[in-house]
């Protein structure tokens, strides 16, 4: 498999996953709207004139009202659109909140490494030189380098654009890899920048973040039911049930969102591996680094922000279902196959 075919395949899979994200966003907004409409309709049936009807009859009638006439259907669609816009707004907020790569690095207690600092260690100077070399090979501006004080072996790239990109490497990576292996690791992160994965990672995180709006809505309904004394007891139970259903929908969408996030990340890791070989012209460096990780080395950072940014890390930190990275054996095999096919 050559690089171009590999890149085309990864991009095609990415497009499919993006489509699934949009479908998930649309379905969740419709479900939330439908839940609220049925709940409000059902609450109306707890008036004295409807006492002779059973709960099942009231529930069926509440569902039928949604599609009773064109006006009701339009109201339902308008409210669904409002929920969708609220989630899109949350996505935009999440995007801008996570778009500053420097803030992300600092949230991991990253130390800025600059050639203006005369007190750099030999390892830090070496890492800085490698970043400059690989950026030159990739024909992009040299990203800012941060060192994270953690003994785990990992790295990530962040930022909204190529000009604002940063690369963060853990102290454990600096200690565990020689220059050739570290070149492969840094070239992999440069690959993420060149392939615009840094922006894609922010977009994915923002999409998943938008689903948390559902928990906020659920909480508002819950507090309204729990603390409003003017609401009838049966209506309170109905509102509590509505809040629980919305929370469940939120939990399910976040769960599916995380799965899609992991699937998207796995495709981009293959693409970054291919780019790293292209920049270094020495695939064994990256393969050797992967072989080291296959030992007893830990890749899980202790920082509480690590889970949120797991998809952006060089090495996986999740379970199989939520694995943000392909298995190392599979990545090694792909690299070796690509080299033999060239």
UniProtKB/TrEMBL annotation:
Name this polypeptide is given: Peptidase M48 domain-containing protein
CC terms in the record's Gene Ontology section: plasma membrane
Transmembrane segments: 20-46, 76-96, 204-225, 237-260
UniProt-annotated location(s): Cell membrane
Any single Pfam family the record assigns to this protein: Peptidase_M48
Cofactor note: Binds 1 zinc ion per subunit.
Annotated coiled-coil segments of the chain: none
MF (Gene Ontology): metal ion binding; metalloendopeptidase activity
Family statement drawn from the similarity comment of this UniProt entry: Belongs to the peptidase M48 family.
Residue span(s) of domain Peptidase M48: 125-337
UniProt keyword list: Cell membrane, Hydrolase, Membrane, Metal-binding, Metalloprotease, Protease, Transmembrane, Transmembrane helix, Zinc
Membrane disposition: Multi-pass membrane protein
Lineage: Bacteria, Pseudomonadati, Pseudomonadota, Gammaproteobacteria, Candidatus Pseudothioglobaceae
Names of required cofactors: Zn(2+)
Signal sequence bounds: none
InterPro entries: HtpX_protease (IPR050083), Peptidase_M48 (IPR001915)
């Amino acid at each position: 498999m050559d690089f171009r075919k590999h890149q085309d395949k990864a991009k095609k899979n990415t497009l499919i996953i993006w489509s699934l994200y949009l479908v998930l966003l649309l379905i969740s907004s419709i479900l939330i709207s439908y839940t609220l409409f049925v709940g409000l309709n059902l609450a109306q049936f707890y008036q004295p004139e409807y006492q002779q009807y059973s709960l099942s009859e009231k529930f069926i009638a509440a569902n039928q009202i949604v599609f009773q006439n064109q006006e009701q259907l339009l109201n339902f669609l308008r409210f669904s659109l409002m929920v969708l816009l609220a989630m899109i707004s949350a996505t935009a907020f999440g995007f801008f909140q996570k778009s500053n790569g420097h803030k992300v690095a600092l949230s991991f207690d990253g130390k800025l490494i600059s050639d203006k600092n005369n007190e750099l260690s030999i390892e830090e100077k070496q890492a800085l030189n490698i970043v400059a070399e690989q950026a030159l090979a990739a024909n992009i501006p040299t990203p800012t380098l941060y060192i994270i004080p953690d003994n785990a072996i990992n790295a990530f790239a962040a930022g909204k654009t190529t000009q604002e990109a940063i690369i963060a490497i853990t102290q454990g990576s600096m200690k565990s890899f020689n220059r050739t292996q570290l070149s492969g690791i840094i070239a992999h992160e440069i690959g993420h920048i060149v392939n615009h994965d840094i922006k894609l990672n922010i977009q994915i995180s923002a999409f998943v973040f938008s689903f948390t709006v559902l928990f906020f809505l659920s909480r508002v309904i819950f507090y309204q039911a729990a603390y409003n004394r003017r609401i009838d007891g049966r209506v309170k139970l109905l509102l509590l049930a509505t809040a629980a259903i919305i929370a469940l929908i939120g939990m399910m969408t976040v769960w599916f969102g995380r799965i899609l996030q992991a699937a998207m990340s796995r495709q981009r890791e293959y693409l970054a591996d291919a780019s790293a070989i292209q920049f270094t012209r020495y695939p064994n460096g990256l393969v050797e680094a992967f072989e080291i990780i296959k030992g007893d080395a830990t890749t899980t950072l202790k920082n509480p922000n690590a889970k949120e940014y797991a998809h952006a890390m060089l090495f996986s930190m999740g379970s199989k279902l939520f694995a943000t990275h392909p298995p190392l054996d599979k990545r090694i095999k792909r690299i070796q196959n690509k080299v033999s096919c060239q």
